[in-house]
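Morning. Coffee machine broken again, so started the prediction first thing and wrote up yesterday's gels while waiting. Chain of 145 residues, entered below exactly as on the submission form.
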Amino acid sequence: MKCKICGREEIPSDYTNEKEMKDHQMCFHCNFWREMFEKDKKRLPHTWCMIDGTHYVIEPDEPNAAFQGFGGDEFHIYFKDGYEVITHNLWCQGEPNEYWRPQFPDNADFDWQWKKIGKNNYLIPKENEEIPDKLIAQEETNISM
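Came back before lunch.
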């Protein structure tokens, strides 16, 4: 099937959302962002954000939960309307492709930044401009393998 949005050829039966992909004539990625757009319209204010082109969902803090976004690290999210959220349960969905990007304007900032180290991107605190030694050592190990 050819995606009506981006033109990508995909086999819907390769995915668990085969029916939705066929119904909307969209590839996995375009269908994912269509679904995210629909979900965001229904979410409460300040429970999702776009920061530097990347989409995040802010789930309720649950200190005893088995899984928490980013391992439970603390994030201070500053929305452009002046509202601030402090969370330990932030989940990243990634970056929408060029077709979907205008549907998701940046609406917040936070106290972390993505840094490329070797071939990987890591999220580190903005106040810490130096790359942590353990990440450098990890990347050097990955390169030598």
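The radius of gyration is 18 Å. Going to sketch it on the whiteboard this afternoon.
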